[in-house]
Every structure is written in structure tokens, then in C-alpha cells.
Design a protein that fits this description.
The complex is a heterodimer. By secondary structure, chain A is of the alpha/beta class. In chain A, the strands form 2 sheets. In chain A, strands 6-7-8-3-9-10 form a 6-stranded mixed sheet, with helices on both faces. In chain A, strands 2-1-4-5 form a 4-stranded antiparallel sheet, covered by helices on one side. Helices cover about 75% and strands about 0% of the residues of chain B. Chain B has 13 helices and no strands. In chain B, helix 8 packs across helix 9. The chains are: A alpha/beta, B mainly alpha.
């Protein structure tokens, strides 16, 4: 952990792009109890790129996202089959520890969820403290400041770091949650409709932020907002539920291509607003 | 067919009249029901006020400093106090809490955070039964297991009896409190790569700490008034005793013994003892209100 901490310091101060990890799913299939939710998803998420996952409600895009850091199985009865590989290592192999995997793959949720009993400062450090306790020789102030700088929140909160995170606006809370996720220095960042509870200005700020974060992380973004996918992502994956309500990947293409020349008729129907 | 169509064409003025009538009826019903629930509340609350008022009037005149500082006088003599009972209640409640609070909290955490399926359901059922068991049954159980084996009534047996009363209340109320923590907070912790037990200790429990305190205090308030359990376990004592291996007095036991005695001065002190008990429980309840006022369940 100590080694990771020093690495954390190095990466946050480095201006140059950091090579992030590549993520890949092979034939990923997810269940809720006996219900098949998503079937046969194979996607390659390129390092240092933003991959957007779009599709109508119930198409399985969030389920796929939650499988990527083994958060899916947190729900009672839920499980997944297939493979999810970080640089070739299967996080679903029997020797993989879901707790360690989640430290490598951070997650931001739909609704901002700062810890209500913690100050802004402690919220940023929550992952660091929860995982390794308080250690000597670690410059926690520095971690907080750089994480808050990374999410462009430092100037807004630097004078009230000891106040509750609940006092911030929704957009600020969401950026605080992103800071909390990146303070543990993950390699991959998963965002589950991070702007759906935010107003357009706060949304814009997060989108700008994602462009910066892409230099350090591989990002997977679930969004129901097609414009957002078009604005921020390099690759877009389109999901759709079939007649048995099982989510499937319809196509994945470079974002510029999927919105101008979709290969699948269903994608075209969706992006042109014919359904969903 | 023609007629049917004619009926579906609405007569606006008639419709409005019907609407008005319905509105008036709704208003009348509303007024009546509001009156009804207010009246019922008044009846039940006034019964409570009569009880408390009676104890207050009867007990207040007997409370002086001596009542809190002196041991009881022999029957027939006037005066004396219940210092032994106050100390006994405090001590047995404290020892009982030392046993019941960790057990209750542990059970609550298991049920709310980890317990799933059949075993958890069985535990819940047992706890609900335990909480509903008449306290005399708990008293007999402790008498048979502790008092008989040790050969003597004791403060420890009383404390264990109170622990039996408190444990299921703490377990079930704290479980409900823990369930109020939104899953989004647990997920936030888990997604940071934190083991589940640590999320429970560092995120879930601190979030509802005031509520947990409330559950514990309510259980203590309930136990502080228990009489039947203590009659069969701690028995009572007429002198100050802090030795847990010896019989110990308690406020409700003192009130009971005085109330069934033949002496006028004891009756007077029985009321005073009840008043002290009511005040103790009122203080507990006030603490609960203060704590719950601070709870925040936002996610």
C-alpha cells in the first residue's frame, strides 16, 4: 500500500499522460437470481479513452458497468459469467479478490453519495483511510488537494474542507465523489450516469473534467444522454434489450461513426429518436 | 343505442351540481374524521395524564433530600429514603447493559448487514418472542439457572435478568435503524475497495449512531422499570449494597414492596419511588428525543 501511495503522489503531479490499463469483456453474461439480464457482451475498452455505453432503460448498460468492478454481485442473488480482463488478467478468476479489484477500478454513481458523517476532507480520503488506515509519512493534505484539483473543486471548497460534504450543491457533491474515487489511484474509472441528477452547468463541468481524467484513466461512462456520449467519448457501445428483455450489445463503434453511419438498423432507429 | 349515446352527453350544469355535492360531503367526512381521531387521542392521552398527575401529587410531597440519601427506616418509623434502591437500579442497569449492549448490537449488525435467508428469519422470530415474553418468565428462568445454582438471590442475577429484557429490544430496534442507511452509501464504500465489515464499522454505523443510541436508551428505560424479573433474582435489600453477589434493592421492587405493605408512611414512599422512576424514564425519553433530533438519513 505504501508503494501505491508514493506512486499516487507521482501520478497526480505528473503533467504527462499516464498509460492506463485496457479493459476487456469476453462473453460477459449477468444474472439477477434466475433472471438473465445481459447476455454475451464482448467489448474492448481502450486505455486512456472514454467509452460510452448508451441505450434505453433496461438495456443492461448499468449492469454491464457494475460487472466491470464486481459490484454487480453485491446485490443479493446477482452473479455474472464470462471474463473481464484488465491487461489480460481475468478479474472473475477464482483467485481474484473483488475487494482488491475495486481498488483498481473506481466507480462513481448516478446519485452523488458522499458519506454524510464525514467532512469534505475526510470524504476525499475515505477510500484511502478505509483501506489502509492512517499511516505515518503519508502526506494526506497533498492527496486531498491534488484530488480536489483534479476534479476542479479545490478553489470552491479549500476554505471549508472541515465542513460536511452534504452542504455542497449536487454538482459539487458529484465532483467530490469523483475526487474520492480517484484519491485511491485506480487505473480505471467507471461512471454510472454521473450527470443524470445534475443541472446542465454542473453537467458541463463534469464533462470537461472527464476530458482531463482521460489522460490518467481508462473511463467507461454509462449515459442515457446521447449528446453527452457524442460530446465526450471516443467509442460508443449501443445496448438494447431483446424481446425476452435480455440486454445485448448491438454495436460498438467510434463515436463519430456511430452517430453518423451506424452499422445496425436498430442503432440508427435509436439515435434518430424513433424509440427509447 | 340512441338513448345510450344521449346519456353520455354531459349536462355541464348538472355535473357541476353533483361535483359540489360530492365536495361538501367530502368536507363533512373530513371534519368528522378529524374530530374522531382528535377525540380518541384526547381520551388515551388524558388517561396517561391522570396516572402521571396522581403519582406527581401523591409522590411529590414525600420527596426531600433524605429520600435520596437515606436507607429505609424500619417499619413503623417515619421517614427514611431509597438510596439503596437507586444505587441498586443504577448498578444492575449498568452491569446488565454491559452484557446486553454488545450482544444486542452484534445481533443487530448480523441481521441487518450479513444475515440472509432462513437462519436470520429464525433469529428474528426468536428475538420477537423473547421481547414479547412476560418478564416473570425471564425472572423464573434466571431464578432456576442462576439463583438456584449459586444458592442466593443476587445483584448479578438481577443484572442478567435485565440484560435478558434489554437484549432483544436493542437487537430489533437497532436492526431497523441500520436498515435505514441507504444502500447507495454501502455501495459507495464497497466500490472504494473496502471490505464489507469495514464499510459496516466505518460508514454504516457512524451514519446512524444517534439512532443506535436511541435504541439502547429505550431498552434501558424499559429495563429500569422491570419489577417481576428483579423480585425473583435480585430480591431486594433494605440496606445499601453494591456487592453483586448479594441481594440488591431496586426502585420498582421498593415501590412494589411498600405499596403492598400495611403502613401509611410506606404507601407514601411507594408513590415517591414511582415518581422517581417516572422521572428517570422521562429523562431517558428526553435523551432519546435529543438524539433522534440529530439523526440525518440523507444519502
Amino acid at each position: 500500500m505504501n508503494r501505491e501511495m508514493t506512486m499516487a503522489g507521482a501520478t497526480t503531479t505528473a503533467a504527462a499522460d499516464v498509460k492506463a490499463r485496457e479493459l476487456e469483456t469476453r462473453n460477459l453474461t449477468a444474472y439477477y437470481g434466475k433472471t438473465l439480464a445481459v447476455e454475451g457482451v464482448s467489448i474492448r475498452y481502450q486505455a486512456n479513452q472514454i467509452t460510452a455505453m448508451i441505450g434505453p432503460s433496461g438495456c443492461g448498460k448499468s449492469t454491464v458497468l457494475r460487472c466491470l468492478n464486481r459490484m454487480h454481485e453485491v446485490i443479493k442473488g446477482a452473479y455474472a459469467t464470462g471474463e473481464v480482463l484488465i491487461d489480460g488478467d481475468n478479474i472473475y478468476s477464482s483467485s481474484a479478490d473483488p475487494v482488491r479489484i475495486r481498488r483498481r477500478i473506481g466507480m462513481v454513481f448516478q446519485k452523488p453519495n458522499p458519506f454524510p458523517t464525514m467532512s469534505i476532507y475526510d470524504n476525499v480520503l475515505a477510500g484511502v483511510h478505509l483501506n489502509s488506515g492512517k499511516q505515518r509519512g503519508v502526506d494526506y493534505d497533498q492527496i486531498v488537494e491534488s484530488a480536489l484539483h483534479s476534479v476542479a473543486l479545490w478553489d470552491e471548497v479549500k476554505d471549508k474542507l472541515r465542513q460536511s460534504g452534504m452542504a455542497l450543491s449536487g454538482g459539487q457533491q458529484q465532483r467530490l465523489c469523483i475526487a474520492r474515487a480517484i484519491a485511491v489511484e485506480p487505473e480505471i474509472l467507471l461512471l454510472d450516469e454521473p450527470c443524470s441528477a445534475l443541472d446542465p452547468i454542473a453537467t458541463l463541468k463534469i464533462e470537461e473534467l472527464l476530458q482531463d481524467l482521460r489522460k490518467r484513466f481508462t473511463i467507461v461512462l454509462v449515459t442515457h444522454n446521447m449528446q453527452q456520449a457524442a460530446r465526450v467519448s471516443e467509442m460508443t457501445a449501443f445496448f438494447l434489450a431483446d424481446e425476452r428483455r435480455v440486454g445485448r450489445l448491438v454495436e460498438i463503434s467510434p463515436t463519430t461513426q456511430i452517430f453518423t453511419r451506424p452499422q445496425d438498423k436498430r442503432t440508427e432507429d435509436y439515435i434518430s429518436g424513433r424509440f427509447g | 343505442m340512441e338513448q345510450a349515446i344521449a346519456v353520455t352527453v354531459p349536462d355541464r350544469s348538472r355535473l357541476l351540481d353533483a361535483e359540489k355535492l360530492r365536495f361538501q360531503r367530502r368536507k363533512a367526512t373530513n371534519a368528522f374524521m378529524t374530530f374522531l381521531v382528535t377525540a380518541l387521542t384526547a381520551i388515551s392521552v388524558s388517561a396517561l395524564f391522570v396516572i402521571i398527575g396522581y403519582i406527581l401529587i401523591q409522590g411529590f410531597s414525600s420527596i426531600d433530600l433524605n429520600f435520596f440519601t437515606q436507607e429505609p427506616k424500619p417499619s413503623g418509623e417515619l421517614g427514611g429514603g431509597i438510596v439503596d434502591a437507586i444505587l441498586g437500579t443504577v448498578e444492575m442497569l449498568a452491569v446488565g447493559s454491559i452484557v446486553a449492549v454488545p450482544l444486542g448490537l452484534g445481533t443487530a449488525i448480523y441481521l441487518a448487514e450479513f444475515g440472509e435467508g432462513g437462519l436470520a428469519e429464525v433469529i428474528r422470530l426468536v428475538l420477537d418472542m423473547l421481547a414479547g415474553v412476560p418478564s416473570i418468565v425471564v425472572g423464573i428462568f434466571i431464578w432456576a439457572t442462576v439463583v438456584r445454582t449459586t444458592g442466593s438471590f443476587s445483584g448479578l442475577a438481577g443484572a442478567l435478568g435485565l440484560a435478558f429484557i434489554m437484549m432483544p429490544i436493542i437487537a430489533r430496534s437497532v436492526e431497523e435503524i441500520l436498515r435505514l442507511v441507504p444502500d447507495t452509501l454501502r455501495e459507495a464504500g464497497l466500490a472504494l475497495g473496502t471490505p464489507r465489515w469495514r464499510v459496516t464499522l466505518r460508514v454504516v454505523i457512524p451514519t446512524v449512531m444517534p439512532g443506535i443510541a436511541t435504541g439502547v436508551i429505550l431498552a434501558m428505560a424499559r429495563a429500569s422499570g422491570e419489577t417481576a424479573v428483579l423480585l425473583l433474582t435480585a430480591l431486594g435489600n433494605n440496606f445499601v449494597n453494591t456487592d453483586l453477589s448479594q441481594p440488591m434493592s431496586a426502585i420498582p421492587v421498593r415501590a412494589y414492596n411498600y405499596a403492598i405493605s400495611a403502613f401509611e408512611d410506606y404507601h407514601r414512599q411507594a408513590f415517591a419511588s414511582m415518581l422517581v422512576l417516572v422521572i428517570v424514564i422521562a429523562v431517558f425519553s428526553a435523551a432519546v428525543r435529543i438524539f433522534t433530533g440529530r439523526v440525518r438519513y440523507e444519502s
